[in-house]
């Protein structure tokens, strides 16, 4: 038993380590032998998992809109916790193990008893809720969100007690025995909030994706998209750094758990978890193998290319180059094939040449011509758009556009505009002549915007978690609800620009006819999510999926 998709969540308790994967699997491991002893399944991605304090139960949170409670070690299902209207990002037991709190991308928290009865619904956040923590006495819950607030709730009544406006996305939160809130934000700061006062400590060079706290020792672990893990002593008014390590290329900064003295278990883009011993400064990746997930597909004269979590470039299904870590995009660019991902490195994927290194992961790219020279725009996790020109001496960084405070999820370019979409739900247009901002629409999507493409000669189309196709032209802004049952991940246009093909996390594909403004028949080639779509001049679309396969979609 191993994972075949990224490990997004991890928990440790006594002899057990549990991992939650994007392959829909929950796996229980014997921590001494690192042997998998049981597994369970969700109907979609498993985002996180947590043990009960006595170790007899495990709760998992999933993109199938549910959390589930399992018996340990059998992983026999005890009860499903339902009612959320979007992905459940986290679930956690109360200190006395009598209740479970969940938070989801529907901007709500729910509190359940162990029989699955919903005791309270906590509403107030205006953005996706990413994490939660219980106070030591079980009377309060604190939550963090992309809306830039930390909110405290009465766990008995569901009433909001306090709203701490941080002003920046906060992915992860903990609370200590004194009631002090500890959070990590998208600026790389660790925030300490108590009695209405807030102290911020610069901890990382990019967003903090995970905090792990141990009350007994006061140890705090932070993981960031700057590719480092840091260990802190959190006792006292200020944080004291005890150790810091670069993350191995295969380790994902969003999942970690303390598992014994001086050891941290971390999620990976592969079959099993990694271990870090900070007393020795060493990583142990015994048994790790890369997973099969594909994240990007592109078509060039040389054929169909794909790449994914393993960082291995395939051309017509044959391995060509190993870039060593997860890659998010592929873009034919002259004789090059550009790619980048978790390491923040822009590569020529054909040769493995490193062209540029950024301080945070790279997410997407689009090419265009400006002043007769080929250019490429690259979107980053920290909200910048990096613009490069192909000059006589090679690829040169000519501009850094600081556009968003969150990840750039998609880019497209016309003859005179760069169009971008952001995880914050905002979109923007920039002039190709001088890269000035032409237009910005805040909350253009109701949920995270995931991707965009050209729509006609000068229009653009965008899709996202709200499952709506939005078309942006000089004349009008149009919205067309899609037939997809889950978040729409990607979009691409046909060669003649008439058909827009969309792909979703549900494994579904659906085309949209720009001439008739009608959706075409939806198909579902895989139960795994569709990650990327490209048009092939042969007259069809090709889609990459998280199951490691490519699927052709004919224009119907």
Please give a handful of descriptors for the protein shown.
Neuraminidase; four-stranded antiparallel beta sheet; Methylamine Dehydrogenase, Chain H; mainly beta; 556 residues
Kindly describe this structure.
The chain has 556 residues and is mostly beta strands. Among the domains are: 46-251, Methylamine Dehydrogenase, Chain H (7 Propeller); 457-556, 6 Propeller (Neuraminidase). Strands 1-2-3-4 form a 4-stranded antiparallel β-sheet, with no helix packed on it. The chain has a 4-stranded antiparallel β-sheet with strand order 5-6-7-8, with no helix packed on it. The model has no long low-confidence stretch (mean pLDDT 96).
Q: Helices, strands, pairings?
A:
Layout: E1 7-13, E2 16-21, E3 25-30, E4 35-41, E5 46-51, E6 57-62, E7 67-71, E8 77-81, E9 88-93, E10 99-104, E11 108-113, E12 118-123, E13 129-134, E14 140-145, E15 149-154, E16 160-165, E17 170-175, E18 181-185, E19 189-194, E20 197-202, E21 208-213, E22 219-224, E23 228-233, E24 240-246, E25 251-258, E26 263-268, E27 274-277, E28 282-284, E29 294-300, E30 303-308, E31 312-315, E32 318-322, E33 327-333, E34 336-341, E35 345-348, E36 353-357, E37 362-370, E38 373-380, E39 384-391, E40 394-402, E41 408-413, E42 417-422, E43 427-431, E44 437-441, E45 449-455, E46 459-464, E47 468-472, E48 477-481, E49 488-493, E50 499-504, E51 509-513, E52 518-519, E53 530-536, E54 540-545, E55 550-554
Antiparallel strand pairs: 1-2, 2-3, 3-4, 5-6, 6-7, 7-8, 9-10, 10-11, 11-12, 13-14, 14-15, 15-16, 17-18, 18-19, 19-20, 21-22, 22-23, 23-24, 25-26, 26-27, 27-28, 29-30, 30-31, 31-32, 33-34, 34-35, 35-36, 37-38, 38-39, 39-40, 41-42, 42-43, 43-44, 45-46, 46-47, 47-48, 49-50, 50-51, 51-52, 53-54, ...
């Amino acid at each position: 038993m191993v994972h075949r998709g990224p490990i997004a969540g991890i928990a440790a308790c006594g002899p057990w380590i549990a991992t939650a994967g994007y392959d829909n699997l929950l796996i229980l491991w014997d921590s001494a032998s690192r042997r998998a002893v049981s597994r369970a399944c969700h109907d979609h991605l498993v985002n996180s998992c947590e043990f009960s304090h006595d170790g007899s139960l495990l709760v998992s949170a999933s993109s199938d809109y549910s959390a589930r409670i399992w018996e340990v070690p059998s992983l026999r299902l005890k009860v499903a916790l339902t009612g959320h209207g979007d992905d459940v990002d986290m679930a956690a037991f109360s200190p006395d193990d009598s209740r479970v709190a969940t938070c989801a991308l529907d901007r709500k928290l729910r509190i359940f008893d162990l029989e699955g009865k919903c005791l309270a619904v906590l509403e107030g956040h205006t953005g996706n809720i990413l994490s939660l923590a219980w106070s030591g006495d079980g009377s309060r819950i604190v939550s963090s969100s992309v809306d830039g607030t930390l909110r405290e709730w009465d766990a008995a009544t569901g009433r909001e007690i306090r709203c701490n406006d941080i002003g920046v996305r906060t992915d992860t939160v903990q609370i200590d025995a004194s009631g002090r809130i500890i959070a990590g934000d998208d600026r790389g700061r660790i925030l300490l909030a108590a009695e209405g006062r807030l102290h911020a400590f610069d901890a990382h060079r990019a967003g903090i994706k995970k905090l792990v706290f141990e009350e007994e020792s006061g140890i705090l672990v932070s993981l960031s998209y700057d590719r480092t893990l840091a260990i802190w002593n959190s006792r006292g008014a200020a944080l004291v750094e005890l150790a810091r390590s670069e993350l191995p290329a295969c380790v994902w900064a969003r999942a970690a758990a303390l598992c014994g003295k001086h050891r941290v278990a971390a999620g990976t883009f592969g079959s099993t978890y990694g271990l870090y011993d900070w007393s020795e400064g060493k990583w142990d990746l015994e048994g790790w193998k890369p997973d099969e997930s594909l994240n990007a597909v592109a078509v060039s004269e040389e054929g169909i290319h794909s790449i994914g979590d393993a960082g291995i470039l395939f051309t017509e299904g044959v391995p060509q180059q190993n870039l060593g870590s997860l890659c998010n995009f592929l873009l034919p660019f002259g004789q090059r094939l550009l790619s980048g991902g978790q390491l923040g490195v822009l590569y020529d994927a054909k040769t493995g040449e490193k062209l540029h290194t950024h301080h945070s992961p790279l997410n997407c790219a689009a090419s265009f011509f400006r002043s007769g020279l080929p250019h490429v725009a690259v979107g980053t996790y920290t909200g910048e758009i990096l613009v490069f020109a192909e000059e006589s001496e090679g690829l040169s960084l000519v501009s850094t556009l600081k556009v968003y405070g969150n990840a750039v999820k998609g880019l497209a370019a016309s003859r005179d505009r760069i169009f971008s979409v952001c995880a914050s739900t905002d979109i923007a247009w920039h002039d190709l002549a001088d890269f000035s901002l032409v237009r910005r629409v805040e909350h253009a999507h109701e949920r995270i915007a995931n991707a965009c493409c050209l729509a006609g000669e000068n229009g653009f189309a965008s899709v996202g978690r709200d499952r709506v196709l939005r078309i942006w032209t000089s004349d009008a802004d149009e919205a067309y609800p899609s037939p997809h049952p889950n978040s729409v991940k990607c979009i691409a246009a046909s060669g003649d620009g008439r058909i827009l093909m969309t792909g979703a996390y549900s494994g579904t594909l659906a085309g949209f006819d720009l001439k008739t403004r009608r959706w075409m028949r939806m198909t579902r080639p895989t139960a795994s999510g569709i990650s990327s779509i490209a048009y092939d001049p042969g007259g069809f679309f090709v889609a990459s999926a998280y199951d490691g396969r490519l699927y052709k979609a004919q224009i119907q």
